[in-house]
Amino acid sequence: MIQVFAFYLFAFAVLTSGAMTIASRNPVHSVLWLIFAFFNAAGLMILVGAEFIAMLLVIVYVGAVSVLFLFVVMMLDIDFAEMRSGFARYLWPGLALAVALAAELFVALGAWSTGPIALGRRIAPTAPATPNIEAIGTLLYGRYLYLFEAAGLVLLVAMIGAIVLTHRQRGGVKPQDIARQVARRPQDAVRLVDAPVREGVEL
Fold it and tell me: Are 58 and 39 contacting, i.e. CB atoms less than 8 angstroms apart?
């Protein structure tokens, strides 16, 4: 009984927060509603036994993507009134894209209802008592270890490339001399002037 109540509670919260994400006029409120939707979706994943996906929703989407959205929205000076003015111009392309995505969903549901795809090589089923995270870890660090290491290597190369591009030598930039700043004395930065009355200060 408690599982059914929790399912309807999380499902109602996901649908409500998703609708409020779209309907909110304030973009900061939209991001906060999106974070709330991710938390409730993680609760639904825990109910069906997918603990790993629930953890990914909280760590990756809430902890990184949504917070990044929130900081970008709050720090950038975006004219949202100007962005909304072009809504009518992009209405029909957006509707065409929505129809295409809906058609893909119907095709996917039809393919799923016909049954699983017959694979050339069968994989032994996982024992029901095995936790979800343990089963995924066994596959990642066992059967797909080399592919997992290759993905990590690709991400490492991308990170190094981003650091190199950011810290490359650029002309016309005045570097910071920390030793000169530390050795600077107060008398080098401040000059006391005894200004005469009604004559101003000579700069």
Answer: yes
